[in-house]
UniProtKB/TrEMBL annotation:
Top-level taxonomic group: Bacteria
The keyword Chaperone is assigned to this record: yes
Organism of this sequence: Flavobacterium ammoniigenes
Gene designation: groS
Protein name: Co-chaperonin GroES
PANTHER family, A to Z: 10 KDA HEAT SHOCK PROTEIN, CO-CHAPERONIN GROES
């Protein structure tokens, strides 16, 4: 991927999946009504701590809480950085 960022300790950098723009029946969803995505791909992983070894790895698709993490923009793309504890599941 070539990102020049390395999360510290038990933090993970996630690229969220794009929000749905159309419903199953074909109705377009306006930007103001789009749901915040709760699924994404792990882009970078910290080394963990002495008490916490990292479970997720780069490339994993994960589910996380709706309000988990901190949003940031790198090289024109949106990312979330969060603690591994905020990740609910690996898909």
């Amino acid at each position: 991927m070539g990102l020049n960022i390395k999360p510290l300790s038990d933090r993970v950098l996630i690229e969220p999946v794009a929000a749905e723009t159309k419903t199953a029946s074909g109705i377009f969803i306006p930007d103001t009504a789009k749901e915040k995505p709760q699924k994404g791909t792990v882009v970078a992983v910290g080394n963990g701590t002495k008490d916490h070894t990292m479970t997720v790895k780069i490339g994993d698709t994960v589910l996380y809480g709706k309000y988990a993490g901190t949003e940031l923009k790198l090289e024109g793309k949106d990312y979330l950085i969060m603690r591994e504890d905020d990740i609910l599941a690996i898909i």
